[in-house]
Amino acid sequence: MNKKRDQSQDRDSWFAEALELLRERGVYHVKVEPLAQRLGVTKGSFYWHFKNRGDLLDSLPDFWVRRQTDPVLAIVQSTDGGPIEKMRALLTFLAHEDPDRYDNAMRAWAQFDANVSRSVAEVDDRRMATARVLFEEAGLSREDAAFRARLWYFYDVGEHVTHDTPPTISERLERAKLRLKLLTSDL
């Protein structure tokens, strides 16, 4: 059991480094040798976990979802209180963790890879659906909740696409507080 767990962790370290390299340089630079160098291991270690580079790239979107989206959406489930408290907890988590930092790289890759495009679309749908449900629970109609969810989410995406994410946690928390106020002041 421990051996299997260690192998999974090692596989995840390859994924994490691949995601970082994707963010820094783009998918064409996500290759076995540079990844091995960055991890300080041999290329042979790569082949213990993956058949080839294609296997890594085919699995990377699932890792992105598991590491960058699932924990964010889990905040909603684990937070006590009403929908506005859950929104506040979600925005606070986002401000501290900045899990969207890899989204631009995934979106760029999705422009020319249909499988990645589907993964990004599914993540977008899940994230907006979560926000929509919170706005519905706060008393908005389904239509109005969907619109506010889009405002919420498109702001997040736009902030990253334009590289306007504040560099410090305190600045991100201030923006989160203002955004929550603007989106919920009438609820």
Structure, described:
By secondary structure, this protein is mainly alpha-helical. The protein has one domain (2-184): Tetracycline Repressor, domain 2 (Orthogonal Bundle), CATH 1.10.357. The chain is 79% helix and 0% strand. It has 9 helices and no strands. Helix 1 (2-25) crosses helix 4, helix 1 (2-25) crosses helix 6 (103-110) and helix 7 crosses helix 8. It is elongated, with a radius of gyration of 18 Å. Residues 1-8 have low confidence and may be disordered.
Q: CATH superfamily membership, which one? A: Tetracycline Repressor, domain 2
Which class of secondary structure composition applies to the elements? mainly alpha
Number of strands: 0
Query: What is the approximate shape?
Result: elongated
Strand content: under 5%
- Assembly type of the shown chains? single chain
What's the helix count? Answer: 9
Q: What is the end-to-end distance?
A: 50 Å
Give a quick set of tags describing it.
187 residues; mainly alpha; Tetracycline Repressor, domain 2; 79% helix; disordered N terminus
Break the fold down into its secondary structure elements and pairings.
Blueprint: H1 2-25, H2 32-39, H3 43-49, H4 53-78, H5 83-97, H6 103-110, H7 114-137, H8 142-161, H9 169-184
Helix pairs in contact: 1-2, 1-4, 1-6, 4-5, 4-7, 5-7, 5-9, 6-7, 7-8
